[in-house]
Write a structure and sequence with these properties.
Blueprint lengths: L3 H7 L6 E4 L3 E5 L7 E7 L14 H18 L7 E4 L15 E5 L9
Antiparallel strand pairs: 1-2, 2-3, 3-5, 4-5
The protein binds guanosine-5'-monophosphate and zinc ion.
The site of guanosine-5'-monophosphate (5GP) has 14 residues, from strand 2.
Length: about 110
Amino acid sequence: MDCIFCKIATGEIPSQKVYEDESVVAFKDLSPKAPVHVLIVPKKHIQSVAHFQTEDKELAAHIFVDVVPKLANELGIAENGFRVVMNTGDDGGQTVHHLHVHLLGGRKFTWPPG
Ligand code: 5GP
Ligand code: ZN
């Protein structure tokens, strides 16, 4: 499958990895929108959060229970706060169709999003 995040997950395309385990990889966004901007990506190709299956429950919990707080702590953004974003589908502004969690921090964000 010609998927950029699958290729980053296998190392075929280089990235600045900040975390990796058996099911997930996290790396710096190529075009950061904040002082800290990493993408947390499952190694399994899942198109978006709308495509999660029951079998992905453990993976989803792993991302949000284990990886997001761990990386927020390690990257120094847990105390002041941060933003977790999953752009989904065309209206959601998703440009890479392999599920990813944006973890952004190091500045104050506004609401509502554009
Ligand atoms: P989306 O727009 O789908 O929510 O987010 C895709 C993100 O992937 C964007 O923030 C974009 O900068 C990032 N991105 C796209 N291609 C690459 C790449 O080849 N390497 C890295 N590190 N980030 C990428
Ligand atoms: Zn993929």
